Structures are given as C-alpha cells and as structure tokens.
Amino acid sequence: MARDMNSSLRMIRPQPLTPEAFAPYGEVIAHQGAERRHYLTEPMRHGPEVVRQAGWVSRVQAAAPGPVEIRLMERHRYAAQSFVPLTDSPYLVVVAPTGADDLPDMARLEAFLATGSQGVCYRVGAWHHGLTVLRGPAEFLVLMGQTGRGDDDEFWQAPAPHALVSISD
After folding, report:
1. pLDDT tens profile 126-141
2. 8: confidence class by pLDDT, cuts 50, 70, 90
3. Measured CA distances, 156 to 13, 72, 141 (Å)
4. What residues contact residue 117 under an 8 Å CB cut-off, 6+ apart?
5. Domain membership flag for residue 133
6. Against a cut of 0.85, is the pTM above it?
7. Does residue 150 lie within any of the structural domains?
8. Domain range holding 114?
C-alpha cells in the first residue's frame, strides 16, 4: 500500500471475537455453554421481502497483506448474513453502527479477530467490511435470505480510506 505513514488514518487493533462484544452487530456462531446444543437466533432473521434462502461457498485465495485499509462497507437490509469457516483460518470482522445519516458511523468502527472455528452472523442491516482472511486460502459457507430483486447488497465507499486495522503485533 503506497501511503504516507504520517497520515491521519486511525489505527485500530482488533479485539478477540466474543459473543458479548459482537452482540450489537449480530451473533457469534460457535458452541457456548455446557448444553448439548447451542441454539442461534440471528441466522434465519429476515423481513417480509425475502422470498428465498441462499447458501454458497466463498473462497479467499490470499491473506490480507499488512494493515487492512477500511474504505468499503456493506450491509443487507432484508436479511441476516452468516459466514461459517470451512478451513481453519483466522479472519477479521470489521463493523460499524449505523449513524444518524443512515450510513456507517466510521468514528465508531470496531474490529474483531475471529478464529478459524468461529462463524459470525451479521444482524439485518449491520454495516460490515468484506471478508478478510489472515491466512489463505480460506473457504466459508455463506447463508443469507434474498429478495430475488437483486437489491440484497448495499455498499458504501468512504471518500477516502478511513482506518487501518492492524493484523500483527
């Protein structure tokens, strides 16, 4: 990345992905507690516009090099979106709450480090950064309700890079 390292970009250090810390944005997909089953509440949530459930496997060939520049965010207004790792590769989960202007509040951006045994389910409408793996190649099962109209994904690009997420100590 060609960038003046004296720039005013905010450096964010990811915190470990825990159900409590991630709760405002969705649900961690991992077994919790001592019961035989841990039921999930978010993955099947969707609005009345959703007409079908879709699933696919996404493959990410290469790991993110150096600090990860956060500029493009996405959300899904009609359904939750889940990512379940199929390979043991750690990955970044970067999220932001919705601001008063209905765009991501980049000043409150948060980053989490997920292990290769933790999935995530983003709540309906949760702003998040794209899938960023720290060791590649990696594969993920992706589950999401769809409207069938082609309007399931909404992207927002910051006018300039907003933050860097550190991926090493």
Report:
1. 999 999 999 989 999 9
2. low
3. 22, 6, 24
4. 30, 85, 88
5. yes
6. yes
7. yes
8. 10-33+42-165
- Structure-block tokens of residue 55: 């699933």
Is 119 inside any structural domain? yes
> By C-alpha distance, which of 155, 122, 136 is closest to 59?
136
Give the lowest-confidence range in 4-8, 60-64, 89-93, 126-130: 4-8
Q: How many domains does the chain have?
A: 1
Cβ distance 103 to 12 under 8 Å?
no
What CATH number is given to the structural domain containing 82? Answer: 2.60.120.480
The whole-number average pLDDT for the span 70-91 is: 96
Element (H, E) at 20: helix 19-22
Neighbours of 108 (CB within 10 A): 12
Q: Is there a domain that residue 4 lies in?
A: no
